[in-house]
Amino acid sequence: MSSPQLGNHLPYLRKTEGAWELIVDNEPYLILGAELHNSSMSSARHMESVWGKLRAMNINTVLGNVSWEDIEREEGVFDFTELDKVLVAARSAGLRMILLWFGSFKNGSSSYVPGWVKTNTRRFPRAQIRNEYGALRLSDNISIFHSECVVADTKAFTELQRHLAHFDSQRIVLMVQVQNEVGLLGDSRDRSPQAEKLFNSAVPDKLIKFLSSQFNDLHEDAKEKLGKFQDALLLYQTNDQRSWEDWFGPSVYTDELFMAYHYAIYVESIAAAGKQAYGIPLFTNAWLPKPAVGGGLGNLIAAGGTLPGSYPSGGPISNVIDIWHWLAPSLDFVAPDIYAADYTATCQTYKRGDRPLFIPEQRRDAHGARRLWEAIGSHQALGACPFGIDSLEPASFAYTAQYKLLASLETLILRSRQESRRTFGFYFDEFEGQQADTSPPIVVSFKEFNLSISRAFVLGKPSPGAGMIIEIHVGQYLLIGEGFKVEFKSSSATSRFTGILRAEEKTVQNAATVALRTERVLNGDETRSGKWVNMPSENPDYGDGFIPLLTPAGTRIVEVQVYSIDE
Questions:
Q1: Do 396 and 503 share a domain, yes or no?
Q2: Could you tell me which residues are beta bridge partners of residue 338?
Q3: Helix or strand run (H / E) with residue 507
Q4: Do 364 and 446 fall into the same domain?
Q5: How far apart are the C-alpha atoms of 311 and 287, rounded to whole Å?
Q6: CA 471 to CA 32: how far, in whole Å?
Q7: What's the pLDDT tens digit per position in 309-343?
Q8: Which of 59, 196, 321, 382 sits a CA distance of 20 to 30 A from 52?
C-alpha cells in the first residue's frame, strides 16, 4: 500500500483500526466523485463548459482519462499541454482529480493506443480470437505475449507520472487508474502463435505453488471454477512440467486463468515503474460479468455476458481476483465497476485481503445514488462514482442532494471510521406492490440495541429510500437519509421495554467541528409517539385518508437517544 512521503503532502492510503482512509493534504478525504465520458478530457476547451456543472452537482473529485494516443502521438515525443490546462482549470474550480490511464487497454480493447502502435502489427502483434465459426481472426486487442507494447506503455505511463510529480505541485491528482477494464473480448483467450505456445507449455511453477498453498483461501468463485486443480494435485507433483489444460482441464475458466496470470504481470510492470516515478495511490478497475441469466457471449456493448470473452477474459474479477492481488502488488487495490452485479457481494469481494474499496463506475441514476449509501456506510468505501456525468444537468443528477448531505457530514463519517464506530448504510428500491411492503426489515445489531430498518411509514404507497446510521454512543444514533423508519429493541435478555428518550432533527452548523444544531424535537407523529423514528421521503404518499399525519423530508438528519427498562 502507498505510504506518505514527508514534506510534500502527497495523497496516500492509511489503514486505521476501523477502515482504510485516503489522506489528502494530511487529512482524511471522502471522495464525492463522478466520472466523465471517455473522451471528454482530450480537450480543455470542451471541459470549459463542464466545470461549473460539476461544482453545482456538489462533486469534489472528477475522474477523467488521459489517453496514450493523446500524449505520445509521435513515438518518444510527449505533449501534456491539454492535460495541464485541464488540471489548472480543475484547481480553479476547486476540484480534485483521479486520472484514468487509457494505455494498452480500455474496455477489453486497444482503442486508445497511438497510431504508431495500431498500424505496426509486426512490432506490436494483436491477439487472435475465434469467430462464431471457429476461424481465427485478428482482434483489436494488443497481444500481451510480446514485450514491445508493455515496454512502450511503461515508458509512456512513467513519463505521465514524472510529469504529474513536477507539474501538479498542489496535488490536484489524488490517484491514478492503470489501464481500464483490461481483458480480452470476443474469446476466452488469445490464440495467436505465441499465446498457443505458452498455453501448451508448462504452467509456471510459482503459480502452481501459489494455488496449492492458497487454494482453500481463494474466493469461492475461483475454487468452483478451478476445482479440477485439486484432483490434479493428487496425480502430479507441484513442480511437474505440465500444460494449463493438464492442471486445470479444458475449460473457458482455464483460459481465463491463463489470461489473468499474464495480464496481471503486464499491468504490474507498468504500475511498478509508474509508482517509482511518482508514489501516489494506483489501482485498476474491473468489468464484471453479467449476472447469471443465460450464457454465451451476450451483449458486448454493455454488461456483456456470463462467460469469459463476453466480459474481458483475464480481467480482475472474482474468479481470479486473488491472482491479481498476488501478481500486481504495486496496485493499491482493484476496483469494481458495478452496473448489474450484486452490489453487496461485489463490495465484499473487492475488500478481500483487507484492501480499500473504491467504485470508479456505477449507475448515474437514482438506482445508483441509493447504493452510494451502502458503499460508504456499510463497506467504508473511499467513494462510489457514477459514470457519464458531463451529459447531465445538476437538477437531473440523482446524486446532487445526496452529495450535499454527505459533504456536510464528511468529517463525522470519517471520524466514525477512525474511532471504529459502527456505521451501516442501506437502500430500498422502487416499491412494486400495491399495498404495504411485506418484506422483512433489515435488522442490525449495535451495542446493546438491535435496530430494525424498513421503508418509511406512509398512508399510501411506500417510496424508495436510502440512508446511513452512525452509532454515536451506546443507545445514541444519527439517522441520515430519507424514505425509511427505524425501530429499536434492547438486546438485553432482561429488558422489559425499549423506548425513545429523545429524537431531534438536526442541521450541520460547522462541518469541520461536526457541530449540530437542533431544529425541532420529534415526539409525535414523526415518531409514532415513541414507537419509531420515521425519516420520510420528499413526497410521502398520503393515501386516501383525510388526516395528514406525514410531513415531507426535512433536514434528513435526526439524532435519537433510546433507553431500556430492565427487570
A1: no
A2: 362
A3: strand 495-510
A4: no
A5: 7
A6: 22
A7: 999 999 999 999 999 999 999 999 999 999 999 99
A8: 382
